[in-house]
Amino acid sequence: MDVVRGDALAGPVRLAFHLRDDDALTFKIDSLSQWMRLSGKVGGARWRLRSDRRLTRLVEALRVGDAIADGATLREIAAVLRADKAGMLDWPGAGDSIKSWVRRRVDLAWRLRVAGPSAVLHHSV
Questions:
Q1: What is the distance between the terminal CA atoms of the chain, rounded to a whole angstrom?
Q2: Whole-Å CA distances, 97 to 59, 84, 92, 103
Q3: Is the separation of the CB atoms in 121 and 34 below 8 Å?
Q4: In the chain, count of helices (H) and strands (E)?
Q5: pTM of the model
Q6: Which residue of 4, 78, 80, 84 is 20 to 30 Å from 45, comparing CA positions?
């Protein structure tokens, strides 16, 4: 976004979006729609927001990052996030797939932390 005229801090502003019709238009519309949702301007969007299949994985990774910061072990994280598989937490053994799942979420949590919030909107994580 650019301030074309005036000062954005001086009062109410009007946003205008200029989108070039190219291959990236769908991505741009999705990003704009997400921004409108976050800013509470959902009523202004005339297109339907596609569901983002990454959302569950990203939220899990954020929870894992918080758990790691609080000193949780992989086993403790698995017990909370994968309570449906609580009987499979024998490592090594049947729980190895759960351990791999937690490790993948730890990796994603680290990548999210390094890349920052814009990486979610740009689909780079």
A1: 23
A2: 20, 13, 10, 10
A3: yes
A4: 5, 0
A5: 0.55
A6: 4
